[in-house]
Amino acid sequence: MTSEFRDPVIRTAPMPSDCNSNGDIFGGWVLSQMDMAGGIVAARRANGRTVTVAVEAMTFHEPIKVGDVVSIYGEIARVGRTSIAVKLTTIVTRKLDPGEIKVTEGIYVFVAIDDNGRPRPVDG
Ligand SMILES: CC(C)(COP(=O)(O)OP(=O)(O)OC[C@H]1O[C@@H](n2cnc3c(N)ncnc32)[C@H](O)[C@@H]1OP(=O)(O)O)[C@@H](O)C(=O)NCCC(=O)NCCS
Question: Which domains does the chain have, with CATH numbers?
Answer without folding.
Answer: 10-112 (3.10.129.10)
